[in-house]
Write a structure and sequence with these properties.
Shape: globular
Radius of gyration: 23 Å
Distance between the termini: 70 Å
Helix content: 25-40%
Mean pLDDT: 74
Number of strands: 0
Length: 174
């Protein structure tokens, strides 16, 4: 009796181990890998200047704008500001990158709503240029005839946004 239990358990365990996981992925493995953000990798810039727990990181980021976790593009591109008086502005405007409220908050000493970002410390001109380059790449570039977007850096189909963070704005936040 005892041997039968061992044989049944061994047979069931062996069958599961040999069969592996059920199901398969569609497409090739590369299409499921996280790809770097197009244009410029904004993740380290957001992490260094925006993603502290007191600002746009932690469990309760300012106005829900999480710039610390994967998926920042989905929380910025085509998402309206939560800044009082600027709710009609997109954080990153998909129709015209030059109208992006995030870029105004970073590049202007006196944005139309709220405070310039970041609130503490400084962000270098190179880091501002990185964020602008990223915004141009994810929107397809400025819509005016004189401006040109960097080369096509769009991720392929099935790729995953590697960005850091959520959209929204508190009076002083992008």
């Amino acid at each position: 009796m005892r041997w039968r239990s061992v044989i049944v358990v061994a047979t069931v365990s062996g069958g599961l181990a040999a069969g592996g996981c059920a199901g398969t992925l569609e497409g090739d493995e590369a299409s499921y890998r996280i790809v770097p953000e197009p244009g410029c990798d904004v993740v380290p810039v957001f992490e260094a200047h925006c993603a502290s727990p007191a600002c746009h990181g932690g469990s309760t980021p300012q106005q829900g704008l999480d710039l610390a976790s994967i998926g920042v593009r989905s929380r910025l591109l085509g998402v309206h500001s939560k800044s009082t008086g600027c709710e009609d502005r997109f954080l990153v405007d998909p129709a015209d990158v030059n109208e992006s409220f995030l870029l105004e908050k970073l590049e202007s000493g006196s944005p139309s709503c709220g405070d310039p970002m970041p609130l503490t410390g400084e962000i270098s001109d190179d880091e501002k240029a990185c964020i602008r380059t990223w915004a141009v790449a994810v929107t397809g570039g400025p819509k005016d005839a004189g401006a040109s977007a960097p080369g096509d850096a769009s991720p392929g189909p099935g790729s995953v946004d590697s960005g850091a963070g959520s959209a929204g704005d508190s009076g002083g936040s992008p």
